[in-house]
């Protein structure tokens, strides 16, 4: 996550070149960094408000782009040229999204630590994820991304700048989310005794500021853009973050398999719970390192963690599910009592808010 911050800032700096290349990219990088750090130091409330603004802009833009892209694809642009499926060639339309598409979708679970009634809110949000991904991402692929190039070639003069600006804010929003997720993960590790206790310290806004500072420790790497071509540096960061995302999902999958095996070994039933429904290798030092450095870093950190804490792999029969299931039952009992007290319009509004 920490290196993802540098990747997204690098992307934002690259997008700025659409308008002008005369300003040193270090200036824009500094502006973006100051904004991201400020938002993450001032508490979850300010972070949520900025994310709502950025997300609203992005949703409105994507809806407009899907409509506009379909018009251009079907020959409704100034040139009257019908594009159709012309560019759906080898290796296919969705190939470039197979690996990066899984990145950061675990953000829903991380947000649960900052949410009231997470057992109710998080499943409701997760159920809506499929439809949001389908309408805003799959349909946007069908109308041929990147949009800026598409509208520029179609002769539409104003839209490319608007699109580029919104995409730039999206990169900044993604940066802010990466800092938020990584810092809360470090905070959780500290609370579990797997990281230094100093990471639990919070400022007056309730932000684990030392965890945020540690998360931002790698962000100065983004200033490599000043000495190198921004697109080249962005490519390096993309390689590193993509492999890191794959490793993260490997760990999540192994953890889930162990969790499932533990439930089965201890006789817990899953009935009654909600169920949620390649590129070319470049033979260069930078290409090899940016693609594979995370594999070695992960292996080294895992072995160091095991050696330092002298921890062992917990047997499936020893996993503690009793405490968590007791907490779930108590929370459901409190919710039932609270819901019985609500009647009429208040109860109706509450259901609309939590299910919309």
Automatic annotation (TrEMBL):
GO cellular component term of the entry, any: membrane
Membrane-related topology note: Multi-pass membrane protein
Amino acid permease/ SLC12A domain segment(s): 4-306
InterPro entries according to UniProt: AA-permease/SLC12A_dom (IPR004841), APC_YAT (IPR050524)
Taxonomy, superkingdom: Eukaryota
Keywords: Membrane, Transmembrane, Transmembrane helix
UniProt keyword annotation of Membrane present: yes
Location(s), subcellular: Membrane
Pfam families assigned to the protein according to its UniProt record, in alphabetical order: AA_permease
Organism phylogeny: Eukaryota, Fungi, Dikarya, Ascomycota, Pezizomycotina
Name of the featured protein: Proline-specific permease
Listed GO MF terms: amino acid transmembrane transporter activity
Membrane-crossing segments per the record: 52-72, 92-112, 133-152, 233-261, 281-305
């Amino acid at each position: 996550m920490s290196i993802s911050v540098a990747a997204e800032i690098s992307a934002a700096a690259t997008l700025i070149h659409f308008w002008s290349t005369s300003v040193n990219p270090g200036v824009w990088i500094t502006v973006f960094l100051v904004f991201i750090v400020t938002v993450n130091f001032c508490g979850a409330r300010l972070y949520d408000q900025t994310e709502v603004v950025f997300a609203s802009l992005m949703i409105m833009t994507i809806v407009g782009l899907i409509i506009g892209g379909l018009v251009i694809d079907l020959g409704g642009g100034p040139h009257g040229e019908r594009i159709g499926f012309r560019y759906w060639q080898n290796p296919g339309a969705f190939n470039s999204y197979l690996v990066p598409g899984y990145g950061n979708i675990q953000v829903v679970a991380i947000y649960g630590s900052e949410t009231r009634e997470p057992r109710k809110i998080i499943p409701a949000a997760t159920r809506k994820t499929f439809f949001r991904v389908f309408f805003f991402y799959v349909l946007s692929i069908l109308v041929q991304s990147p949009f800026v190039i598409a509208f520029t070639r179609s002769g539409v003069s104003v839209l490319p700048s608007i699109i580029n600006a919104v995409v730039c804010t999206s990169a900044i929003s993604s940066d802010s989310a990466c800092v938020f997720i990584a810092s809360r993960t470090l905070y959780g590790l500290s609370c579990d005794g797997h990281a230094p206790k100093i990471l639990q310290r919070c400022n007056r806004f309730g932000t684990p500021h030392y965890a945020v500072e540690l998360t931002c420790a790698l962000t100065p790497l983004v200033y490599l853009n000043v000495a190198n071509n921004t697109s080249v540096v962005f490519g390096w960061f993309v390689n590193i973050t993509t492999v890191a995302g794959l490793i993260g999902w490997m760990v999540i999958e192994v953890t889930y398999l162990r969790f499932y095996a533990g439930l089965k070994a201890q006789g817990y039933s899953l009935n009654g719970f909600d169920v949620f429904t390649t590129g070319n290798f470049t033979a260069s030092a930078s290409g090899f390192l940016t693609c594979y450095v995370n594999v070695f870093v992960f292996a080294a950190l895992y072995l160091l963690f095991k050696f330092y804490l002298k921890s062992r792999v917990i047997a499936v029969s020893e996993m503690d599910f009793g405490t968590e299931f007791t907490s779930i039952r108590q929370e459901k009992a409190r919710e039932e009592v609270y819901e019985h007290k609500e009647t009429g319009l208040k109860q109706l509004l509450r259901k609309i808010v939590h299910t919309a």
